[in-house]
Amino acid sequence: MTANHNIQKAVDFNSPKVARYNHWRKIKDSIAKYLIAVGGIAVIGAILLIFLYLLYEVVPLFQSAKIKPLTEYQLQADKPSIYLAVEEQNKLALRLLPNGQVQYIDLDSGKTAYDLKLPLPEGSKITSFALNSDESRLFAVGLDTGEVFVAKHNYKITYPEDKKLITPELEYPYGEDAISVADAPILNLGLRDSEEALTLVAATEQGLIGKQLVKEEDFIMETIEIVQKDLSLPNLTIAQNFTPKHLLLDVDARFLFVQTARDSFASIDLHTQTVSYEKQSAPIADMQMLLGDISLLIALNDGRISQWFAVRDNGEVHVKEIRDFKSDLLKPAKGIELTSEQRRKGFASITQSGDLTLYHATAQTDVLNAKLLDKGLVDQMALSPRADRLVIETDDGRLLVFDVKNKHPEVSFYSLWQQVWYESYDEPKYVWQSSSSSNDFEPKMSLTPLSFGTLKAAFYAMILAAPMAILGAIYTAYFMTPVMRRKIKPLIELMEALPTVILGFLAGLWLAPFMEEYLAAIFSILLVLPLGVVAFGYAMSRLPMRLQNSINQGWHGFLLIPVILLLISFCIMISPLLEQWFFNGNMRLWLSNDLGIPFDQRNALVVGLAMGFAVIPTIFSC
Q1: SS3 559
Q2: Helix, strand or coil for residue 550?
Q3: How confident is the model over 443-485, as pLDDT tens digits?
Q4: Cα 9 to chain center, whole Å?
Q5: CA–CA distance, 173 with 166 (Å, rounded to integer)
Q6: What distance in Å separates the CA atoms of residue 321 and residue 398, rounded to the nearest whole number?
Q7: Lowest mean pLDDT: which of 3-12, 489-498, 555-564?
Q8: What is the pLDDT of residue 219?
Q9: How many CA atoms are closer than 13 Å to the CA of 351, on its beta-carbon side?
Q10: 343: helix, coil or strand?
Q11: How many Å apart are CA 489 and CA 485, to the nearest integer?
Q12: pTM, two decimal places
């Protein structure tokens, strides 16, 4: 009776203690249910937010450029400017007038905010103008006296009474005295400034004349002395009664581009004194250097714009046409003006009647076509440094200001997926290099090497992981003893919890340099390890039956661990000898020079090995 009573008491689920326990268990279950639900919803919400953020970042890549008019002013000066520029804050527009006056127009009010003047020699007149580059803000004017005056416009920003004040300044890096270049009026002018020298090329009635102001530094006195030298120029064949309308120098002042006729130009290699003439399909409307001053842009009156830069071919450097651009608005027109962006490889073209097109050189596409003028003709055009403002001066004395939204002109199917001929490259290539420290850098955003590299790394990873994981799973399930299986299987599955960031860190920090040093060992392991394992298995089968029976069934795989370690160590030890015997002492150079396969330390093979190690547990568990 006592035993039965105890049994009945043990299974009494209605006792107060069990009731309290069930009550708290229900409370805990409810709390856990809501916590899990909230956590799951939070995870889903976080993923959605990440998706929305990525969408927010990606959508602008596919948005087209837009332009809208902001304001229009009537200029006070009755003379058209010979140079127009906009400062970075989009507050002031600079106008250089033919008399040497420098006007600064307040773009918020249209009034003249500042009025400066170049200290030109008395009685001289400006006959030509040259710009080093918009981003350097250095320019020069040629005078009727045969002299050249060099100046630079800068802007000082102060905050009196917590209000931003932009004060323009004119600097004279080569002094306030004009530089004597020729004995006749300078009809056209070319300018290039560098750390080593200032190069000037002037077109006069007597022909082309070149001067260089070489900067010689005295390291003892810590001063820089300017020494003027004559620049040797070859004889050019220039059309009769034609004065070169465009003189441009590249970034190193090696190539001089001269318009020699209405429909042709010459590229002069100042190092070798060689001249190459390029006949065009129509009269040349404008010539302009692209950002970085490596590429030359040429606009023709038939509406075509071409890009040229120097390439090396069979050991010789020459200027070659790389690509051309066409726009629906650039119909045959008498006048086309080009303006380059200051921070991207983009540029703008505008006809005299106000048909504007925005391009990106690397993307080889036009991103915007717009009609900007209803009346009047375009005299000057300027883009702000951030390319978000466009200012146009017309022949009837108006100044028009436009807002430009053009965030990602560098993205196109051509730039992402096709071979692109980048500046200073000898041929078109697939290259991914998205950023650099310089604004002059040409973004290289080909997705082809990224996609191919990903597929190649995945292929290498599967070659490593699939056989090892599948065969390991088969051996563990069918041949390994239960005692050993209970230890090995959880251990391999636990490998799946290793953070991929850590694996990538180890691959870049340790595996990549190790493979570079022992590249021959890596490839010899692929051959030696399978043969060694087969040889060890054969040797085990030839042992006396008494020794074979002394090894417990399912523990044979454990004996392979020291064998594998010894074989890998052996391959690493003989790696220098293998390179000496078969690869002239260096397998990396042999791959590059003899097979034409460039070896980079962080290559797809390293990624494949790291990824293969990461996916082994996943394949093993499946």
Answers
A1: helix
A2: coil
A3: 888 999 889 888 988 898 998 889 889 988 898 888 888 888 8
A4: 80
A5: 21
A6: 37
A7: 3-12
A8: 58
A9: 25
A10: coil
A11: 6
A12: 0.80
